[in-house]
Amino acid sequence: MALSTPALGETRVSPSILDLVAEPDRVKTTSIDRVAYASDASHYLYTPQAVIIAKDAVEVSQLLAASMRAGQPVTLRSGGTSLAGQASGDGLMLDVRRNFRGITVLDQGKRVRVQPGATVRQVNARLSAYGFKLGPDPASEAACTIGGVIANNSSGMACGTEFNTYRTLESMTFVLPSGTMIDTAAPDADAKLAAAEPELVATLERLRDRVRGNKDSVALIEKHFALKNTMGYGINSFLDHQTPADLLAHLIIGSEGTLAFVAEAVFWTVPIRKLAIATLAVFDSLDLATRALPDLLDSGAATLELMDSTSLRVGQSLPGVPEAIMGFEINAQAALLVEYHADSEEELAGLQGDGQRLLDAASLRAPAMLSTDAANRQAAWKFRKGLYASVAGARVSGTTALLEDVAVPVASLAETCGSLQELFEEYEYEDSVIFGHAKDGNIHFMLTDRFEGETALNRYNAFNDKMVDLVLSKGGNLKAEHGTGRAMAPFVRRQYGDELYEVMVQLKAACDPRLMLNPGVIIDEDHAAHIRNIKLNETIEVEADRCVECGYCEPVCPSKDLTLTPRQRIAVRRAIAKAEAEGNRELAAELERDFEYSAVETCAVDGMCVTACPVQINTGLLVKRLRREDANPAMAGGFKAAAKGWGAATRVGSVALSVAGKFPVPLVRGATDVARKLVGNDTMPRYDADLPAGGKARKPLTGNLGAAGTEPSAIYLPACVNSMFGPGGEGQGVAPAFEQLLRQAGISVLVPEGIESMCCGTPWSSKGYEDGHAVMAKRVLEQVHAAQPAFRLPVISDATSCTEGFAHTLEEQGFEVVDLLAFTSRHLLDKLPEAKRIDSLTLHPTCSSTQMGLNGDLQKVAEAVADTVHVPVNWGCCAFAGDRGMLHPELTASATAREAAEVRELAASAHASCNRTCELGMSRATGKDYRHVIELLAQGTGIA
């Protein structure tokens, strides 16, 4: 296999390993790919020599066996949300997320079979229909994957140690470094393991007997594993499990990719409690909050989440946080998010009474009332789940956030927190923060600094040594749920002593004789290992500089399986800045060159990343900035001219589509392909058979539209995209459908005279053409003002992305902008004749409908049309993004692949969305005819 020679240097991974991969595009050795995969949520930076996008478990088996023979270090990477460095490495990295997302619900939800690339949220979305969920409930559930959940023995906010991974995993299929693959659910699993790995089995049995035969070891294990504990290997397995396959499976849980690859796992699930009450109680101090814990725990609280004053201070600057933390100056306060769960009203009432009495007697800043209010509960949990990234995002530019987590007995938590605060003060970590799962005595604390140079590293080492002494003196664990990783590997012996540490060393050697699987994680005799390769980020563009690389954005990114994710785009920007600062122009130039396609051209700028980002980073804004800065003057001039003559431009585009449809598709497609080679793929769209004929002009719609003789209720701006692209199938188009509904409801709207030349401006803003956008924004404002000189009606548009674009232009001038979905849902539905319903409808919400909070209205309109409404679990942005799906069809194909497969399985009677280009993208992906849901509503109420 021919490999590139990137500026980072030629890969040192042997061709004998890389050649095992049949498809060359799954082997990544360019500088940009290696830099992108170097990023994870931890404070470490290790750049891999090569990355392989693994195809399946059999291929992983072959790659591990070849790597063991060659002594090639291997790191397994799935979600990359681990915080202690266990998801990064400088050898060969295997991506076991992209092609490992399978989820199979078993026994009506009581069990579930999952592959390592599925996120906890995706699994729970499948299980929720059956009334079950996974036991582990980590705060990063939107992004963390099952591979990491198993590798770290994840727990979370409510599950404690009772329902963590170790306690709820039924069986697994694992692959050892030798390539041996074992399904522990198979009746002959022990026999197969013994036949393939006799020395390993003998060692497991010997270590099991050694541990059980040493009463001091037994006592120490029972002490540490009575609390949350992910320090070292899960050697409690030696006490809990007997047979070799079952014993090894449970030792692999929490082994952080150092013993085996888990290709698949079956979990026992837990029932979803039917009822919940919650409150966010703000105490006058951290000490008072922690001292309230034992009584609240005894009262039956399901969750008790602690947040200190720094957490609250950062929270006050974020949108949508609970009202309880707003409106006062924060000094020493701390908060507890208190929640109770129940299955009956009677049970809930009893819990509420007990909990409320305790809260009423507590020293609170203001009364805290336990409530079933879903909005407040959701706001509190959103804040809590994003807390680490939010606090880390508020750090000083150029510094690194270092997060640790420890566990102590609940009775010792108040003293431990107090002592930690004293250590922060002693070592001048002024912006440190404490938060966590107080119910389990499990707290997280964060330090921020530029961990560079002797002074900074010595300060951290001195702090760390005292912190270790503190936690161990309280009978605690140095790692509770984030895994040992690299951060605590040098301290494993200190927690367990020589005897049990030696057991762990022998376990590692028995499973991985060449010590090639994730070296440096869990077992590392280098006492300075935890301070090596700490991230030292350069300052980059303001839109993205506060990113902590948590990875929450990745599952919602439409380009995640094609090029780069938002986190990776930011990581590459940082690598470019670092290369420039170090004078490495060759690397900077190579990264800049490859960044153009991988990050700029294939970004849908859909903004979905901001919906998942705890610090509200919209990487699309960064890409728009880069497009502005790199805008071709000739193209910018052309787009400005188009803005000035937009009415003619839309009609030319419409006519061109209609004319193209009369010629053989290969002829027209071939012509556009030739043009693309001449002017570039990012300039010339590609024609294909699934593009419709052109749409109708908007000018005939001007004036009062709808019920005759009525005063207009709104200004209606039909989107030009519905004029350029005609309706799908036998549809009439959204504007005629809306006109029909208006007449039926006895309502009218006003369409401005200049509508043919108006646009929301998104085609210019998304491409970075500021002058053209300014021309269009000025025209839109003038026309809307002219349409209603004496008063201001709400402004409606009929494509969600266009509504969003108009909102950016008009709302700052005092206009209310409303999407057609919301207007129909709130003002028309109750006035329309009952629709003739169809059997089933599959919806595709859009990125704009999601960000504008319109999905509820979309659902309401759909439910007026169909008996059953489906929104695919694998729903995501289609990435058609105006013309992006025609410029880069591969982007839409990748973004829609999983949703399209689910849509075909659902086999609904009809398919709908709320944005014409998204309808085109989904029609292309699925072969189904997607139309605006308003068209279906009009069809159901009868064509007038």
Q: From the alpha-carbon coordinates, what is the Rg to the nearest angstrom?
A: 29 Å
Describe the sheet with the most strands.
6 strands, antiparallel
Beta fraction of the residues? 5-15%
Spatially, the strands of the biggest sheet line up as 12-14-13-16-17-15
Q: Which outline best applies?
A: globular
Low-confidence stretches at least 5 residues in length (pLDDT < 50)?
none
Average of pLDDT: 94
Count of helical regions: 39
Briefly note the structural class of the backbone: alpha/beta
Number of strands: 26
* Beginning-to-end CA distance, first to last residue: 65 Å
The helicity comes to 40-55%
List the helices and strands and how they pair.
Elements: H1 15-18, E1 27-28, H2 31-38, E2 50-53, H3 57-70, E3 74-77, E4 92-95, E5 103-106, E6 111-114, H4 120-128, E7 132-133, H5 146-151, H6 165-168, E8 169-175, E9 181-183, H7 189-196, H8 198-212, H9 215-224, H10 237-240, H11 244-252, E10 261-268, E11 270-271, E12 275-283, H12 286-291, H13 293-298, E13 303-307, H14 309-315, E14 334-342, H15 345-361, H16 374-385, H17 387-393, E15 400-407, H18 413-426, E16 433-437, E17 442-449, H19 453-473, H20 492-511, H21 566-581, H22 585-601, H23 608-612, H24 619-629, H25 633-644, H26 646-660, H27 665-679, E18 703-706, E19 712-717, H28 720-724, H29 734-745, E20 748-751, H30 762-765, H31 770-787, E21 795-797, H32 800-810, E22 817-819, H33 820-828, E23 838-843, H34 847-851, H35 855-863, E24 866-870, H36 884-887, H37 889-906, E25 910-913, H38 916-926, E26 930-932, H39 933-941
Parallel strand pairs: 2-4, 3-4, 19-20, 19-21, 21-22, 23-24, 23-25, 25-26
Antiparallel strand pairs: 1-2, 5-6, 6-10, 7-11, 8-9, 8-10, 12-14, 13-14, 13-16, 15-17, 16-17, 18-20
Helix pairs in contact: 2-21, 7-8, 8-20, 18-19, 21-22, 25-31, 29-39, 33-35, 37-38
